Amino acid sequence: MKFGTMTFLTTLILTGVLTIPVRLAAQSSSSEVTTFDAPGAGAAAGSGFGTFPTSVNDGGTITGRYIDANNVNHGFLRSPSGDEFITFDAPGAGKTAGSGQGTFPKSINKAGLSRDTTLIRTM
User: Fold this and answer.
1) 3-state DSSP assignment of residue 65
2) Residue pLDDT, tens place only, 6-46
């Protein structure tokens, strides 16, 4: 019984101590949630189409994919201010309607570019 109580108390104390830095960091940082849709993204309710951000760099440039009304995936880059929105398709990416094929960006570097061709997968 004593061992179980000690284990419980140790777990309780460690959990409390380890969450303090997380709470302080969350309280001291400012954040903002911005919603957006890629131009051409399908918008039918319940369709599964839409805009799916996958990565943001330190400068605030966002990359990801969107699924159009034909169920084809396309890549996008969104500027930190939201003024510029670039859509793209990787060379050789499938574009057959209804297939779910297309471009799937995975990551973005500090310059806002993908230097590693493995980061963009095509189907």
Assistant:
1) strand
2) 555 444 444 444 444 444 444 555 677 778 888 888 877 77
The tokens of 37 are what? 């849709």
Domain annotation covers residue 44:
no
- Give CA angle at 88 (43, 122), nearest 5°: 90
Name the DSSP class of 72. -
Same-domain pairing of 64 and 113:
yes
> Do 106 and 92 touch, CB atoms closer than 8 A?
no
* Dist CA 71 CA 97 (whole Å): 6
Q: Which amino acid is at 20?
A: I
The total of other beta-carbon atoms located within 10 Å of residue 116's CB is 10
Q: What's the number of domains the chain is made of?
A: 2
Helix (H) / strand (E) element for 50: namely strand 50-56
Point out which residues pair with 64 in neighbouring strands.
53, 76
Q: Is residue 116 part of a domain?
A: yes
Helices (H), the chain: 2-28
